[in-house]
């Protein structure tokens, strides 16, 4: 009650507009707080960081649209005139900002399809794009390359290129060719069997995946043995440690059979000239 009369908000649209803006600001604060607390939680939740950020952006966008609609209604603007002006200016705006719109829809598809999320290592064989995803926005995605440089990629580009997500691999592959000398051809069969038995019993190798150890062909200066298998670990550093262990143990197997690794060699045959008959 103000001066014995009720304060009538209907007579003061500007007060109503301020109230709407205040409620919208409060809604933005609530969404930002929930987003921040969810991202800072140490325990895993049903939603990953990318999904939380995407849902928060959608809520903020809805709040902004609702605020604009209510504000236009409170200001008494004729929606028909607004539509007429919007239809003309909208066409020009859409033509001028087609890249912005395509990037926006590209960001929406990234949130819906989830080919990658924040923290994933991605790469593209079509473009020179490789690194860790740091941020997925409505217009661009920020990637930190392995030389620690930020890379900003428009979201629309992901609709036209192939993207690999090595972070979602289940194993890492070892694909090596071991070459021994031609002088050790008699030991090749035993070496292949020994390497196969060693890999089949190794705790570092995924036994439920394909394991191939076979004599694979005659090289230029070596007898080639194919070693193909998958490690259990997907961590990049640990993978190389396990691969090092595997290769050194294979080197020990070759040496234990009295064989040696081949290296490029050439054999030169020189013809000896026959002595000329005496006259």
Automatic annotation (TrEMBL):
It is a multi-pass membrane protein. Keywords: Cell membrane, Membrane, Transmembrane, Transmembrane helix. It comes from the Bacteria. The keyword Disulfide bond does not apply. InterPro entries: LSM_dom_sf, MS_channel_1st, MS_channel_C, MscS_beta-dom_sf, MscS_channel_2nd, MscS_channel_C_sf, MscS_channel_TM-2, YnaI-like. Pfam families: MS_channel_1st, MS_channel_2nd, MS_channel_3rd. The keyword Iron-sulfur does not apply. It is found in: Cell membrane. Residues 57-98 form the Mechanosensitive ion channel transmembrane helices 2/3 domain. Signal peptide: none annotated. Residues 99-168 form the Mechanosensitive ion channel MscS domain. Its main location: membrane. Residues 177-261 form the Mechanosensitive ion channel MscS C-terminal domain. Belongs to the MscS (TC 1.A.23) family. This is Mechanosensitive ion channel family protein. It comes from Psychrosphaera algicola.
């Amino acid at each position: 009650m103000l001066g014995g009369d009720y304060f009538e908000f209907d007579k003061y649209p500007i007060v109503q507009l301020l109230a709407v803006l205040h409620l919208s600001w409060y809604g933005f604060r609530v969404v930002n707080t929930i987003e921040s607390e969810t991202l800072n939680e140490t325990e895993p939740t049903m939603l990953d960081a990318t999904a939380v950020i995407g849902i928060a952006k959608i809520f903020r966008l809805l709040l902004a649209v609702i605020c604009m609609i209510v504000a236009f209604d409170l200001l008494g603007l004729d929606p028909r005139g607004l539509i007429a002006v919007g239809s003309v200016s909208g066409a020009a705006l859409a033509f001028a900002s087609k890249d912005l719109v395509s990037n926006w829809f590209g960001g929406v598809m990234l949130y819906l399809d989830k080919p990658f999320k924040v923290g994933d290592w991605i790469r593209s064989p079509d473009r020179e794009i490789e690194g860790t995803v740091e941020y997925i926005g409505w217009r661009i995605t920020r990637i930190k390359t392995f030389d620690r440089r930020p890379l900003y990629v428009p979201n629309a580009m992901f609709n036209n290129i192939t993207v690999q997500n090595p972070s979602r691999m289940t194993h890492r592959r070892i694909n090596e060719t071991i070459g021994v000398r031609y002088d050790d051809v008699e030991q090749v069969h035993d070496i292949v069997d020994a390497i196969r038995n060693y890999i089949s019993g190794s705790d570092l190798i995924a036994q439920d995946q394909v394991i191939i150890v076979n004599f694979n062909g005659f090289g230029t200066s070596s007898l080639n043995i194919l070693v193909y298998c998958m490690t259990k670990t997907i961590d990049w550093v640990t993978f190389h440690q396990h691969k090092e262990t595997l290769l050194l143990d294979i080197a020990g197997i070759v040496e234990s059979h009295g064989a040696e690794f081949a290296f490029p060699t050439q054999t030169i045959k020189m013809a000896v000239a026959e002595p000329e008959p005496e006259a």
